Amino acid sequence: MYKTKNDLPEGNRKKLIELLNSRLADxxxxxxxxxxxxxxxxxxxxxxxxxxxDDVAEGVEAHADLIAERAVQLGGVAEGTAMVxxxxxxxxxxxxxxxxxxxxxxxxxxxxxxxxxxxxxxVDESAELQDTGTADLLTExxxxxxxxxxxxxxxxxxGRNAMKTITTGxxxxxxxxxxxxxxxxxxxxxxxxxxxxxxxxNVPLESGDFAARVEQAxxxxxxxxxxxxxxxxxxxxxxxxxKLEAAGFTAVSRYTGGAAAWQKEAGEVHASQGR
Length: 275
Description:
This protein is mainly alpha-helical. It is about 55% helix and about 5% strand. Helix 1 (about 10-40) crosses helix 3 (about 80-90) and helix 1 runs antiparallel to helix 4.
């Protein structure tokens, strides 16, 4: 330890420095886990999660600076090399083989929550060592971590009964990446001729065997299905999604913008085959 005119007892400062370096290891580990998620996330929510995970990494890096500098202020050495972090971090190892956005949300939110718990404990330990400055700093870190946990968990907290909707960008990504996706136009055959999206099939909502025809086209009720109609003002796709979910489909999404949004944003409307 370095000599300092800080009036906290030396024994307390030594324990505080050890505490801060322990949480520094967790914090830097969490930052790298957020970058791992940022680099490798895939799926229909790629852009939103890719950018969010990078924001988390930047926010956590700022927390690491606060923790490290506090250790130095107390006369210690901030210990933040990769080898030290690997030895000291109390966080679980981040899974390296996951790709889907939902899996990264689960893994990163678990890491964030674990770090938040450790920081809250450190707040109490700092107070017991009569250092309100460190306790206040760690309280600030705790509040920031709670915010990031909120942001990440929001991607998995939609109610089970909430209807899933997707944007034009998400639909394009899913059409490009999911070979088993079934895109269903729910309008009449006549309207379908004016509202075709590349790769879509036509199953009119008013047909008596709507759910059965979609199931046959998709290859099962657990297969991904996206329904759409003419525009955001059209409610046919909403009714169709509800009907499919009531029939037991488990992977139904609604493209709310419809053919009008697709033509405006994607710039293409092609001929498709009805079924």
